[in-house]
Specification:
The protein is an all-alpha fold and 63 residues long. It contains 3 helices and no strands.
Length: 63
């Protein structure tokens, strides 16, 4: 449970950094995302999930 909560905390930090550092750019990016077709957003989400899974696998296996 401790590892899970630490992981969630790290995700929140990484997700919050661009909003804190570049709020104007993030508004622009959010507008662009809202105009993208759902199929493109699904592909982006799928690639991000696979990247995260690969990262966790590498971290747990080799480090």
């Amino acid at each position: 449970m401790e590892l899970f909560l630490c992981s969630i905390g790290m995700v929140m930090i990484v997700e919050g950094l661009p909003h804190f550092a570049f709020p104007e750019k993030m508004k622009s990016y959010m507008r662009q995302f809202s105009e993208m077709p759902e199929a493109v957003l699904r592909r982006i989400g799928f690639v991000l999930m696979l990247s995260g899974l690969f990262t966790v696998y590498v971290a747990r296996s080799f480090i």
